[in-house]
Amino acid sequence: xxxxxxxxxxxxxxRNQLHMRCGESCEHRGTPFPERELKNERCPHGRLxxxxxxxxxxxxxxxxxxxxxxxxxxxxxxxxxxxxxxxxGVLVHEFQRGQVSERFAGMSLDLLGEESRTRYHRDxxxxxxxxxxxxxxTASARVKAPEPLMFSLRFRRTGMFGATHxxxxxxxxxxxxxxxxxxxxxxxxxxxxLDAAEGIILLLDPLQMxxxxxxxxxxxxxxxxxxxxxxLNRLSELLRERGGTxxxxxxxxxxxxxxTKFDLLSDMFPEESPLHQPSGHVGVYDEADGLDVHEEVRxxxxxxxxxxxxxxxxxxxxxxxxxxxxxLGAPPVDGNHLAPQGVHPYRLEDPMLWLLARFxxxxxxxxxx
Length: 369
What we know:
Blueprint lengths: L2 E3 L6 E3 L4 E3 L10 E3 L18 E2 L6 E2 L1 H6 L2 E7 L5 H14 L1 H5 L4 E4 L1 H18 L18 E10 L5 E12 L2 H5 L1 H13 L2 E6 L5 H7 L11 H16 L11 E5 L2 H4 L19 E2 H18 L2 H10 L3 E5 L25 H10 L4 E2 L4
């Protein structure tokens, strides 16, 4: 029987283990009860129940589309200045009404639930696209539990005999505080949701690499460095311990490693680099383009950061892919103002498209190399 992972407490439950609530006409309205206690579509007190399911562990309501659609949990991690919140905020915009929506005809993105809609408008859309200012840093999980941002990606598909249907992919994103990634004790608190993730996106801040900062300057980065290799090692340790993966086996969770702030690094890549070409993912995920970028970023990290980073990933994760991108297109003027041209992302959707292709939501093509 299919299971559902609660997007709030990350526990797994079979469908018949989920709870429901007594409806408005019941004197016990709002009281949860196991779904298996339904009789003739009535609650144990003989009244119509509320339609929404409830997690039996934490008591939070579960959206029907999330339960029915088998939501995909995706974790986004990275050090403090890697731009995780910015990436998520711009990604949703691009899938809703930006360049990605133009390249994937018939695709739509809908935020699910009032909490996600309110949070996205308040914390992402308004500051980035209306006020044109950088986002505030994410609160630590030691202070505030990460709240998921849920949305449904819908893809229009045509069947063998011309019939059209819509295939939804419900996605749950978590944004973590950079300080939590850097601190072992805080990261322990995040392992439950990292373990529940079906895909992990690790954002690498190039300004946390000494040789890169010497080349391009600090660009407002705080003093000191967060060692990216240590973050990776801690992540793999925790996933291995929680999942019981033996030391001789690699982790099976797909890992996308995205080098951010490409706008600062452009001249560090050769003119013929695939990263200087627009994304080739039009209606499908172009695997040839993805592999070209993967090899380019791998070579760059070996030269400008540390060859040990790639060796550690290859030995820890069964499936991984490198990406290069820019969420804003240009560095902010200061802590209160984006660049005058506003938000102009470059290839920021590539990690998400790769995961969607691995989930089977979009087609992957080998293309031409």
